[in-house]
Amino acid sequence: MRPSKRAPDELRKVTLERGVSRYAEGSCLVTFGETKVLCTASLEERGPSWLRGSGKGWVTAEYSMLPRATHDRNRREVNAGKPSGRTQEIQRLIGRSLRAVVNLPAMGERQIVVDCDVLQADGGTRTAAITGAWVALHECFTWMRGRSIISVDPMRDHVAAISCGIHKGTPVLDLDYAEDSGAETDANFVITGGGGLVEVQGTAEGKPFSEEEFLSLMRLAKAGTAALVALQKQAIA
Question: Which residues does phosphate bind (predicted)?
């Protein structure tokens, strides 16, 4: 039995609430169980300098965890002088995941920054952030089209992410902290609405995992992200 009493293929309760920020061009409050992430998308009329003259736009992301998102207060990274390696890894992952489903030339030479701030962490913050960031970005594109800033929707597909793992010998979907901290294998999958793989991260915490176990995690992830894409569609309807 999982600590949360869920079935092996059962997601935590997931909600996607868009339009939660008054000032951002796009926003979404995403919850995966007790994990809560605020995603805001901000339009900048100028793209990165290294893209100047290319006719292409850019989508990037920043990620942070509030000091009391966890049991103990974490020091703000701004006071440390630079983001941690983990933070840099996650925000690059979010940016790559979003760009995989965006037609960058359709944006013009503009940049959208998606900020993902973890309000409360109970495992799966990066996967929740990617799933909610897509909704915030979609809302930003809708805002832009409504003001004739762009003429077509740059969004080519949905993208969502989910964690999977092997906990006490059983492949399970959507790990919370209790499972993640004791899992024999931990993996994150980023998958498009069309079923394409954007990124797969898998780590054996104890003994190596087999190809058969990996494929079982992949099947769980595909079903899980399909359910998340269905929730995204409901959120933007």
Answer: 86, 124-126
Q: Residues with Cβ < 8 Å from 131, sequence gap 6 or more?
A: 14, 16, 30, 32, 160, 161, 162, 228, 232
Q: Phi/psi of residue 75, each to 5°?
A: -70, 135
Per the annotation, binding residues for phosphate are 86, 124-126
Q: pTM to 2 decimals?
A: 0.95
**Residues of each annotated binding site:** 86, 124-126
User: Is the distance from CB of 50 to CB of 62 less than 8 angstroms?
Assistant: no
CATH class of 14-236: alpha beta
pLDDT digits over 112-165, tens only? Answer: 999 999 999 999 999 999 999 999 999 999 999 999 999 999 999 999 999 999
**Among 172, 160, 158, 159, which residue's Cα sits nearest to residue 219?**
172
Alpha-helical (H) ranges within 155-210 are 177-180
- Residues 129 and 151: their CA atoms lie apart, in Å, by 28
Domain definitions of the chain by residue range:
14-236
